Amino acid sequence: MLRAMLRDLRAHKGRVAMTLVAITLGVAFVVATWVVSDSAAETIRGEDVRGDVSVSVQIADEAPELTVADKDRLASIPGVATASGVSFGYAGLIRADGKLVSARPDKAGTGWDSSARFALTSGRAPGPGEVALAEAQAKEANRAVGDKTRILLSDGRSVDTTVSGLYWYRPLGEPVPGVAFGDSAVLRSGFTRVELTARQGANVDAIAASARDLVDPDLRTVATGADLTAQAEARADESAQSQRETLLGFAAVSLLAGMFVIANTFAMLVTQRTRQLALLRAIGGTRRQVRNAVLVEAGVLGWIGSTLGVALGIGLGLLGLVASDSDGITLSVSPTSILVGYAVGVLVTMIAAYTSARRAAEVAPVAALRSDGSFAPRSLVTRTVLGLVAVTSGVIAIALTLRNDLSTTERVVAMGGGIAVWLGILFLAPVLATAVLRPVGRLLSRHGGPATRLGVRNSVRDSRRTAATTSALMVGLALVCAFATLGSSITSMLSSSIQATVPATATIVSSPVQRLALGSDVLEKVRSVPGVTNASADRYAFVKVTHNGSTSPTTMSAIEPDGLVKPEIVAGTGDVRAGAIVGENEAAMIGARLGDQVTLALDPVTSITTTIIGLHKGMEGRPLFYVDLTTVPEKFRDSSVTTVYASGPDSAAVRVGIEQAFRDRPDVVVTDRDEVIKEAIESFELLLSLMYALFGAAIVIAAFGVVNTLALSVMERTREIGVLRAVGGSQPLVRRAIRMESVVICAYGGLLGIVVGVGFGAVMQHAMMGQSLWDFSVPYGIIGAALVGMIIVGVLAALWPARRASRTDVLAAIATT
To answer: Which ranges does the record mark as transmembrane (predicted)?
Structure first.
């Protein structure tokens, strides 16, 4: 039995070629994801590990810096040989073209020391008036040993210095600094970390315990060198896992599309071999043997496709690492990635083929006497009922969560409702195909030619087959349209939020690095520009909000009450002198109402308690809490300025004056409201484009599924095509009929994907952003491109099957039984 099935598989390689393509592409995506994430983690783990630090005492996030007195106390711990302070501060390296390098400058500067932090690769250690540069930053800035360069410092200061050397940095959990000053006093900062070296034979754990007794645990963290190494490896693994989970989501979509292709292929293969299966049953084959033989056949295909997919995935992973243009990347192909590739490929194929295997086992021996070699149509009642239940449940869940101020649970319910509707439509796909395509067929029959009539009728001949083929297209295209709708809605809301908050005539001053604080001198310098009558600031900061005993992260801005920033109020008052204004969605998330008190923790030792007096129509990416500038401590007023807004009677003159004032400051960008909106939208659209490309893998697999369906359908209709040719049907007619069938299937799948995608995108923006369900923005450009793309896919997918059908030998086809 098994030999007979495998022999048949070898004899009809064309039947399974597209199935192998679907398996190969899906597995390749999974393996490439694993290779890239494993390589990133292995690269971090493979970096030189410092062995010169016994204990590290480091400040917590936003905590006050360590002082010389703190270092001296730690140095006095029994068993400590040396104690060295490590400083990090603002240092903006200026490129040869006068702009800043891309690395964030806020922690890019440090003081040079003789520790194992630095490994010189060329030149020498810097002295007073000199700097050493990290190799990556030096390459980007086009600076070499001996070059003169300018470094921007905090508060608008800058120094002209000489590059004495280049280095490779060994971090202990901190971002790699790009600039090391020969004189660390240039940074004007305390110590971010104090590194302790133990004497020979001293107990490191005892030193760490003593250090913990000397510092405040809320402001300082103490760890041994071994702990820091373990933490670095754990962060590498966590980063790899996060990257892997993100990309595997896209891989899962590709595999889902592949499952539809594989299931459809096996359903058609089993139908075509009805008489063969019946003969096997007639000569003694049991149902179990037939079912297992089909599953083994699927397993063999899965194994072959997985082998090809693993090889392709490793190649794609390598290409991805090369394309990243990162130095020192270590290629890692773990046994796990290969095993996962095989497991996914074989299991997905066998799961997709299981229904067909069961159907094959139900073939009665008497079917060998039939000449049509087909199964009786299966009832769609169960599938239709499940689909209606899923759609109804989803619609009810969405209807119950139509309010804008949704809690976290209600947001999950709304998303669940959208997913239920989507699954319900997948169940209803055969019924929908019949309901939509048959009227289209009748319409085209009256106005179209013979090829059109034949193509449309063939597309609805088997609604299950059409549904399976279009479902693969629908999944990929619906995800593209869903995220396009979400992205279009977010960019529209972002644009509206900025327009409602900032005057159109305002000149905007910000950092070229997103959400990086400007120098403390910038606001006063803007105010001193001739023609400026009003200058105020946004002080965007990540804080923690506590309400009713529950604490969660949020964002805040301290603003001037009569400043240019005016949040769009939807309830209460907008006068921050009376209390805080919070985004209506954020208020719903933390369960707060007008009049409630909240505590905002600015850092581990500083917090403010205020009353909610207004709700604004905010969104993620913009401040969710607005408070009066006078309510925050003095140290936050100038040091946390992220954006400055200025206006005057002549807005054009104001902008020119500000540009002149900061013409030698590459750490300051002068724009207006429209440019800010454009930049925000472009950066978001870049992310969406990447997502479209990743979801495109599913559409590619679905396109191969269309080719496979048409090719197998042509083989199934060999006798029919022969009769058509015998009664006068020309080769061009046959080709046009097959091509029309393909275009109808792809166009229907595209339309269904667009409808489902736009609808799910509307639910996503409602659940995620808290906006009205009906306030979504339709991505007309993506929809138009999708429709045109589906028609092109339909034409291209039909090329080979149509050519094969048109070349059918008439006499041989008529003789086929």
So the answer is: 16-36, 247-271, 292-323, 329-354, 380-400, 412-437, 467-487, 690-715, 743-768, 780-800
